[in-house]
Structure formats: structure tokens, C-alpha cells
Amino acid sequence: MTLVGIGVLLIGIAFVILAFFIGHVLNNLAGVLSGIDKSMQRLPDQLDDIFKETGNLIEEGNKSLADVNDKMEQLSPLFYIVGDVGNVTRKFTSSLVDVSQSVKSKTDGAKEVTEKNNLGGLYGSFALGYYWLQKRRQQKQVKREGVTSDEQEA
User: Fold this and answer.
1) What 8-state DSSP symbol labels residue 1?
2) Could you give the CA distance from residue 124 to residue 109 in angstroms, rounded to a whole number?
3) 107-141: burial string, b at 16+ Cβ within 10 Å, e else
4) What is the domain partition of the chain in residue ranges?
5) CB-CB contact of 126 with 120 (8 Å)
6) Torsional class of 2: left (φ above 0), alpha (ψ -120 to 50), beta (otherwise)
7) What is d(CA 76, CA 69) in angstroms, rounded to the nearest whole number?
8) Under DSSP, is residue 3 helix (H, G, I), strand (E, B) or coil?
């Protein structure tokens, strides 16, 4: 055998090995493509199921939204009442603020007069005397009522 024969033999063996390798790769590729084919055949049925479930989900969402809208319509008068109560209390508190401001301004004027004339101690003394007089009258009244009730029991 000559060198050319040995070279051709080596090229032939390499070609056979390459052919087996390419055949094995192509066989694996055929298996992958077969799996893709099966998946693609099932895809329309799966998509039909997904679209059916999506339709059901949208329908349930619409029902829930309609239910919420109905309940909100029923609660609307309550919200109006709460708003009216809030407005009334706001108006009432603002009028109370106005009254308290006017009382404060009137007492501020009286305070200036008492400080100007140094009458604070005199007014305080009269107020204390009046308070004691009222307490004394109440105590006498309670004693009289106690005596009359004891006389009635006897």
C-alpha cells in the first residue's frame, strides 16, 4: 500500500466518523423538532382553554364591578348625610369661634378698664363676698328643709 492509499483510507475513516457524528446530531435535532411539533399541535387547544378561562374571568370581574356599583349607589345617601353633618358641624363650630372671639374681645375691654382704674382687687373682693353670701343662703336653705322634713316625720 502506498502513501496515497493510506491517506485515502484515513480520509475515508474520518469521513465515516464525521458521518456518524452528524447523523447522531441530526437524530437528536429530529427528536427536538418532533417534540416541538407535538407541542404546536396541542397549542390551539391550550389557547382555546386559556381564552375560555380569560373570558370567564372578565365576566366575573364585570359581575363584581356591577355589584360594587350597586352597593355604592345604596351607600350614596349615607355619604351625603355624612357630608351634610360635616357642613353643619363646621358652621356650628365657626359660629362658636365667632362667639368666643366676641366674648374675648369684650372681656379684653373690661380687663383694660379694671387695670386702668386698679379695680381688679375691688371686683375680686365683691365677687368673693357675693360667693360667700350665696353659699351661706344655700346652707340655711338646706337646714330649713332638713328641719321641716324632720317636723313632718314626727
Assistant:
1) -
2) 17
3) eeeeeeeeeeeeeeeeeeeeeeeeeeeeeeeeeee
4) 3-147
5) no
6) beta
7) 10
8) helix
Alpha-carbon gap, residue 125 to 69, rounded angstroms: 69
Provide the residue-wise pLDDT of the chain in tens; the chain has 154 residues. Answer: 688 889 999 999 999 999 999 999 999 999 999 999 999 999 999 999 999 999 999 999 999 999 999 998 888 888 888 888 888 888 888 888 887 887 777 666 556 655 655 555 666 677 778 888 998 899 888 888 876 655 555 5
Report the sign of the C-alpha dihedral through residues 56, 62, 68, 71, in that order: negative
Q: Which helix (H) or strand (E) holds 151?
A: helix 120-153
In contact, 52 and 44? CB cutoff 8 Å: no
Sign of CA dihedral 34, 40, 45, 49: positive
C-alpha cell recorded at residue 131? 360667693
Query: Coil, strand, or helix at residue 154?
Result: coil
